[in-house]
Write a structure and sequence with these properties.
The protein is mostly beta strands. It has one helix and eight strands. The strands form two sheets. Strands 1-2-7-6 form a four-stranded antiparallel β-sheet, with no helix packed on it. A hairpin with a 2-residue loop joins strand 3 and strand 4.
Amino acid sequence: MNLTRYNPMRDFNQLIEDFNRPLWGEGGMLPMTRADWMPSVDISESKNEFLIKVEIPEVKKEDLKINVDKGMLTISGERKHEKEDKKQHRTERFYGSFSRSFSLPENVAEGDIKAEQKDGMLYLHLKKAEKSKIKTREIKVS
């Protein structure tokens, strides 16, 4: 698992990229060219495991997909915008699909990854092992 240092220029570059896209698409919505949003992630390590915490409020379990393929962990899903018969004055939260991928270190037991969702957070427990042999696996959220 590669940890990267926070880079404030990444946020600035994203702002410039968003500004350069056409402002209004069909139905007055902003067009999206890739994943609509990216949930925030915290990654920590203890003696026995890595813990990945993903902030995904209002994302249902059935709208989540977690896969491990050749040392790459991918978390994807969708937060659906429920149409209400109300006038919206302000919408600041992001809706739509997302995807995050992380390369796993060799000492992760790819066959022993547990996922749980609680209070708007997804917790992925990645147990440490000597060397992983599983190449592809889908993880179920409990």
